[in-house]
């Protein structure tokens, strides 16, 4: 049994000489640890440095600038979240962040529209950092491309057609991302929780982290450190891929430990999901893989929904109770009375 997080090179996918081994390594990495480092993702070191520098510049803006784009202004869960205002696994997280999604107009909402339609809409951009928007849009395009290539590779590795999952993201792939800053511990805040233990809700997460470390992956009952590897992204499986593969692949539990006093850690997670109106298919696995599929995990505290919009909305409502109360009171009320 390995106890290290493997490295996968996406360039090996398109190369006839390495294609078959690549698929086998990908399947094994995703099945075993559920986390891997990714190179060959098509993003240059300059682009990585550029987005990390702008992430830092964003958090160095005066508080007033950041609070002007507070997430509480946005029914689409876009914008700035102050330290301590986000919750994971019933604890307060210790990071500040800017949440971003696909830039588009809000959809018209009718009384019987599914609530997840409220998730579509514009971002909130900081007025005094105009360089940010083009850099984010470039990052979204590049990571989306890498995520789609990976999903194609996963489909093949699971014995499917290359585009077996395409109809759940085609035309309208959906994703969200954030810029995050984890401050070091202080006398006032000595908890270890940067972000509490959780699974990601989408298909795949492609995360850029700086060189500080602190990301940990649960593997066979122990926490493994996802030690930073320069130039790579860290990829993990989300709940939608767990559902599609009938639990053959598992959405991996992970967390972030707060950095030591006097330092800060920056990260840029990108969460690739699917059309919000899509339903996740159950892939028919070849017999030798189907035998090893455990079924999706059933956790009453975290139900997994095949309806993409519902699954995405579930984690948004849980992470940002203040935004939920303001714009989704009707949904919360319905869930309370149904419970
Ligand atoms: O910042 C990180 O390294 C991980 C963040 C994370 O797991 C998340 O936002 O879902
Ligand atoms: Fe996560």
UniProtKB/TrEMBL annotation:
InterPro entries: DIOX_N, IPNS-like_FE2OG_OXY, IPNS-like_sf, Oxoglu/Fe-dep_dioxygenase_dom. GO terms for molecular function: metal ion binding; oxidoreductase activity. Keywords: Iron, Metal-binding, Oxidoreductase. Pfam families: 2OG-FeII_Oxy, DIOX_N. Residues 173-274 form the Fe2OG dioxygenase domain. Belongs to the iron/ascorbate-dependent oxidoreductase family. It comes from the Bacteria. It comes from Limoniibacter endophyticus. This is 2-oxobutyrate oxidase.
């Amino acid at each position: 049994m390995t106890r290290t997080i493997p490295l996968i090179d996406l360039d090996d996918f398109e190369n006839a000489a390495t294609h078959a081994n690549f698929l086998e390594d990908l399947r094994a990495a995703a099945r075993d640890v559920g986390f891997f480092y990714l190179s060959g993702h098509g993003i240059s070191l300059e682009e990585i440095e550029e987005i990390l520098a702008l992430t830092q510049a964003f958090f160095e803006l005066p508080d007033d600038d950041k609070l002007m784009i507070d997430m509480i202004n946005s029914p689409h869960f876009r914008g700035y979240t102050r330290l301590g205002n986000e919750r994971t696994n019933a604890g307060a997280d210790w990071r500040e962040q800017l949440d971003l999604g696909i830039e588009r107009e809000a959809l018209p909402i009718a009384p019987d529209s599914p609530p997840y339609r409220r998730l579509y809409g514009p971002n909130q951009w900081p007025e005094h950092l105009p360089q940010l928007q083009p850099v984010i849009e470039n990052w979204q395009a590049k990571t989306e491309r890498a995520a789609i290539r990976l999903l194609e590779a996963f489909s093949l590795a699971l014995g499917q057609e290359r585009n077996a999952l395409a109809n759940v993201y085609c035309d309208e792939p959906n994703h969200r991302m954030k810029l995050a800053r984890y401050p070091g511990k202080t006398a006032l805040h000595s908890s270890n929780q940067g972000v509490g233990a959780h699974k990601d809700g989408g298909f795949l997460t492609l995360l850029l982290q700086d060189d500080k470390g602190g990301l940990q992956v649960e593997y066979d009952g122990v926490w493994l450190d996802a030690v930073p590897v320069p130039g790579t992204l860290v990829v993990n499986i989300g709940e939608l891929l767990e559902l599609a593969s009938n639990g053959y692949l598992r959405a991996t539990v992970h967390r972030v430990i707060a950095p030591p006093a006097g330092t800060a850690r920056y990260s840029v997670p990108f969460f690739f999901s699917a059309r919000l109106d899509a339903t996740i298919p159950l892939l028919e696995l070849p017999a030798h893989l189907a035998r090893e599929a455990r079924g999706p995990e059933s956790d009453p505290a975290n139900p997994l929904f095949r309806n993409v919009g519902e699954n995405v909305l579930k984690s948004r409502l849980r992470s940002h109770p203040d935004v939920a109360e303001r714009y989704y009171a009707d949904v919360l009320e319905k869930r309370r009375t149904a419970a």
